[in-house]
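ok posting inputs for the zinc ion job
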Amino acid sequence: MHADAAGAIATTGRDLNNRGLLASYEGNISVRLDAERILATPTGVHKGRMQPEEMVVVDTTGSVIGSGAASSEIKLHLAIYEERADVGAIVHAHPPTATGYAVAGKELPRAALAETVALFGCVPVAPYGAPSTTALADSVREPVRTFDALLLANHGAVTVGGDLEQAAERMAQLEHFAQIALVAHVLGGAKSFSSGQVDEISRLREASGERPVPAACYPAASESGNITLTREELVGLIADAVRRIR
Ligand SMILES: [Zn+2]
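and the output
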């Protein structure tokens, strides 16, 4: 009945493993079969060598329907399905560069790469929760309402999609972006867009039926060069400058 979805998960696991987005037993994948059932990778299997018949069906509370033991991270998946009715598939992985940012506690640069702003808006870091716990599942509830890709602090990344291909490709795109961000960092740091330039990308997103770029993804005033000062601060700066000229 869900043979197609099971086959797609097995293929995606092999693909993620081959592309270096997860290593061996790491990560997990799920697909929403219908309003009551989710098909997920089993716990403790090599994601590059899964067989379709190994996949596990669970209900929305995580109870197994049939046989097998679902992924240890099933709570994370269930929380996301609960928050987002539009999500049909979820990929959790540990792509090395993006996870490097999550482990270093560094945000990926906001409003810096056109493709990323268009695709994701930006990629926030969800607070740390120990793997497989309700704390981890709860840490993504709020940000996943707005974002399709998240970093998990000191852990990895999660991407969602309308279908499995979209969720998996978003994981690859996230890692690609993280690699670009790292190169930009080495070369002196990413140069941020202005708010107007983000507005322009946001309009393009909306024209293609996507949600506008979330407010949180706009450059901070100090990044864009649009520094806001109070009148007193401005007067103080001018007074300092005049003093220096004298
Ligand atoms: Zn993980």
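notes: Residues 164-186 form the longest helix (23 residues). The mean pLDDT is 92.
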